[in-house]
Specification:
The chain is mainly α. The chain is built from four helices and two strands, in the order αββααα. It has a two-stranded antiparallel ribbon. A hairpin with a 2-residue loop joins β1 and β2.
Length: about 110
């Protein structure tokens, strides 16, 4: 893949393109989810001025899903087919916010 760069304010970014163009790879690189032997060669990857590449794996996990996330285009790779979607959304909310199960269920139903 060739160089990619984004500069955003408070906007949300949606990446579209042809199959195989690197959309998912770019998203995984930003999230720190590139599996070996892949690697990110960027000098800097910043979110609100904080260099994500300088963070420990634990620190990056803390911001994933809460401050930055990725929605895959094919749900068969993202969702568990034996769990209701609402339950999966509530589970993610619960993990990232520390909310009660009741609050997570309420948030997921909105």
């Amino acid at each position: 893949m060739r160089e990619v760069g984004f500069t955003l304010g408070r906007e949300r970014l949606g990446i579209v393109g042809e199959s195989g163009s690197g959309k998912s790879t770019t998203g995984r690189a930003i999230l720190g989810l590139v599996p070996p032997p892949g690697r990110v060669t960027a000098r800097r990857l910043a979110l609100n001025g904080e260099d994500l590449l300088a963070l420990s794996p634990r620190q990056r996990r803390a911001i994933r899903g809460k401050r930055i996330s990725m929605v895959m285009q094919d749900p068969k790779y993202s969702l568990n087919p034996v769990m209701k979607v609402g339950h999966q959304i509530a589970e993610a909310y619960l993990i990232h916010t520390g909310a009660s199960r009741a609050e997570a269920k309420l948030k997921a139903s909105r």
